[in-house]
Amino acid sequence: MAEWNEDTDSDIEDLEILNDFNSYFNRPYLVRPRENNFVKWDDTEFIRRFRVSKNTAFTILEEIANDISHPTNRNHALSACNQLLLTLRYYATGCMQITVGDFSGVHQTTAGKAIKKVTEAIASRRCRYIMLQDSEEDKRKHQNGFYNMARFPLVYGALDCTHIRIQSPGGQNAEYFRNRKGYFSLNTQAVCNSDLKFSNIVARWPGASHDSTIFQNSRLCAIFESGQMGQLVLLGDAGYPNKKYLLTPLQNPVTEAEKLYNESHIRTRNCIERAFGIWKRRFPVLSLGIKTKVELVQDIIVATAILHNLCIKHSDVMPNLDVNLENIIDVTGSDNNQDTTLSSNYSNNSYRRQMLIDNYFSSLQ
Questions:
Q1: How far is 250 from 106, CA to CA, in rounded Å?
Q2: Could you tell me which of 331, 312, 322, 319 has the C-alpha nearest to residue 51?
Q3: What is the spatial distance between Cα 335 and Cα 239, in angstroms, rounded to a whole number?
Q4: Which residues of 77-108 are buried (b: 16+ CB within 10 A; e: fewer)?
Q5: Which residues make beta-bridge pairs with 190?
Q6: How many Cα atoms within 13 Å fall on the side-chain side of residue 251?
Q7: Nearest to 235 by CA among 204, 265, 273
Q8: Which long-range contacts link 272-276 to residues 24+ away (Cβ below 8 Å)?
Q9: Pairing of strands 185-192, 198-206
C-alpha cells in the first residue's frame, strides 16, 4: 500500500491546473453564427429588443460606420452593423457583457471592446445632436413650445439633475460617488426643450455633488451669466439659487398671482422630469447600474442622450418596459430632499421673478 504524503497531493493539484490550462488554450477555434438582426426582426420586434427603430439605428450607423469598421475582414471581424446592435442590446438590457456577447455570437472580450468603440463613436457626435441653439428662430420656437404648456413666458429650457447608477469606482474617493439615496452614481445635469430633447448635458460629477454646485461650475451657467441668451430663462426646482436667468418656485406663495406663478412653473418645468423618465425607460442600463469604468460610463450617458434625441426626431414609439423592471428603474430626477433654502438665500436676484409675478401673472387672474 503506497504511503500518502504532501508531495503527492501537490503533484495532483499541479496536474489538474495544467490540464485546465491546456483544455482552455487548446480549444478549437470556433466562429459562432451571427444573425442579421436587421432582417430577422420586423419593426415591432426590433424595437422591443434594441429600444430604437430601424430608421434610428440606420441613421447612427451611417454616422459612425467609418469609425468602428475593421480595416480588413480578417479573422471574421465583427461588422459595424453587428457592433452597433450589440451595443444597443447592452443599453436596452443592462445585462452582463457575456450575455450580449452570446446574443451577438462573440466572446465577452470582443463584446466589451465593441461596446467601448461604439459608445465613444456616438458620444463624439455630441456637438451635433446636443447643443444650445442660439438662432432667433430656434429661440422663438422654444419659447412658444414652453408657453403653450402653461403660459410661462421667455423660457428657453427646463433644468434638473438625475442620478445614473454605477458600480463602486473603488479607490480612496469612492464614497464621493455615493449619493443621498445610498447607492453609487454620477449626478447628471441636463436641460431639455419643450419637445423633451436634451439641449445640454453634464455627466462628470460624482453622486454626492449638489445640483447647484454642478450648475454653477458648468459652461451653461457661464453662457447665461454672460447674457448670450438675452432675456431667456431656465426653470429649475428649489434646489437651485434663484437668479435673473434661473427661476425657481416660491416656497410659500400667498397671493393669487404667486400661486398662479408656481402652478405654471411646475407644469412647465415638469417636461425635464418626463424627459428623464423616457430616457431611462428606453435605456434601462442607466438605472440598473453600469458596470464599467467611470470614463466609459460618462460616454454611455452622453451616447444614450444622443440616441434619445434621435428617437424623438424620428418619432420612435416607446417600447413597453418589462414588468419586472418597473419597480427597479428610477425615472425620477435628482434628490427630492435637497436643501430648498437656496432659492430664498439670493433675494437680490429675485427681482426678475417678482417682476413676472407682479406685471404678468397678476394680469392672468
A1: 55
A2: 319
A3: 9
A4: ebbbbbbbbbbbbbbbbbbebeebbebbbbee
A5: 160, 201
A6: 14
A7: 265
A8: 272/158, 272/159, 272/160, 272/190, 272/191, 272/192, 272/333, 273/160, 273/332, 273/333, 274/196, 275/158, 275/190, 275/192, 275/196, 275/197, 275/198, 275/308, 276/160, 276/162, 276/190, 276/331, 276/332, 276/333
A9: antiparallel
Contacts 24+ apart (CB under 8 A), 257-261: 257/357, 257/358, 257/361, 257/362, 257/364, 257/365, 258/357, 258/361, 260/361, 260/364, 260/365, 261/353, 261/356, 261/357, 261/361
Query: pLDDT tens digits for the chain (365 residues)?
Result: 445 455 555 655 666 666 665 555 555 656 667 778 888 899 999 999 999 999 999 999 999 999 988 765 666 678 899 999 999 999 999 888 888 888 888 888 889 999 999 999 999 999 999 998 878 888 899 899 999 999 999 999 999 999 999 999 999 999 999 999 999 999 999 999 999 999 999 999 999 999 999 999 999 999 999 999 989 999 999 999 999 999 999 999 999 999 999 999 999 999 999 999 999 999 999 999 999 999 999 999 999 999 999 999 999 998 877 656 666 666 555 554 445 445 444 455 778 899 999 999 988 86
CA 6 to chain centroid, in Å, comes to 57
Cβ neighbours of residue 131 under 8 Å, at least 6 residues apart?
Answer: 199, 200
Q: Which three cell numbers stand for residue 31?
A: 466562429
C-alpha cell read off for 299: 460616454
- For strands 233-235 and 246-247, give the pairing: parallel
Question: What's the residue count for the chain?
Answer: 365
CA–CA distance, 343 with 242 (Å, rounded to integer): 5
Longest distance between any two alpha carbons in the chain, whole Å: 106
Which residues make beta-bridge pairs with 246? 234
> What amino acid is encoded at 334 in this protein?
S
